């Protein structure tokens, strides 16, 4: 059955990777989806791939005015807002001795301030029964080497969410963190290609999978189906949790 029939959802950073897969699963479950991202061309390509229940709006999550304008446009298009997936995020490899102030500011501007500016202007618009999903990472508890800044940003939003469930008490809106481990996206594959060369990518993906209790890394669609669940009435009493959708990686 279609869990999100008649609902309207916003997915930030929806032009690629996990966000695109989330948008596809939402549409498959009956939702109208508006994806936001930085580039018009990338948005247009994603909307064409997802189909007529999806449209795009160019907006930078680190700019509050962009997000306010995006939500106003969502209401103009659909007249309602039921779900928000704060997915846009960045993660650069920067070991301690090479962390720069610029890298610090950029990581927190997108991954923390960007989540705040995705959530804050949505709150007055979300209907009771509405749901917010913030895409975290297993790096929030286990940052891999060289990913301390990224892990810190994901831990920061996880703790924001713990506080926010109390701040939004009585709104009927739930908010949770969905934390992937390694997900087989183009961005993961291109990062591996840059580090180890293009020919080494399939073996590197296999090796990452072997380190996981399930023996593989995730398909992006598996983030989509988990986000559908968290935004559906089936998850009606789940709020404030960090749900690891990581094949058990964070538990071993
Ligand atoms: P991705 O780079 O494919 O997608 C992220 C999208 O966000 C891109 O389309 C990008 O243009 C957009 N974006 C970046 N900065 C933005 C901004 N300021 N405003 C609006 N959009 C912006 O990456 P992905 O792997 O799909 O990652 C999506 C989320 O999942 C991120 O929050 C990431 O930290 C998280 N995550 C990914 C993995 C993984 O293995 N791929 C694992 C754990 C967590």
From TrEMBL:
Keyword list, A-Z: Oxidoreductase
UniProt xrefs under InterPro entries: KR_dom, NAD(P)-bd_dom_sf, SDR_fam
Superkingdom of source: Bacteria
Domain Ketoreductase: 7-186
Any single Pfam family the record assigns to this protein: adh_short_C2
Family: Belongs to the short-chain dehydrogenases/reductases (SDR) family.
Protein name listed in UniProt: SDR family oxidoreductase
Origin species: Kitasatospora herbaricolor
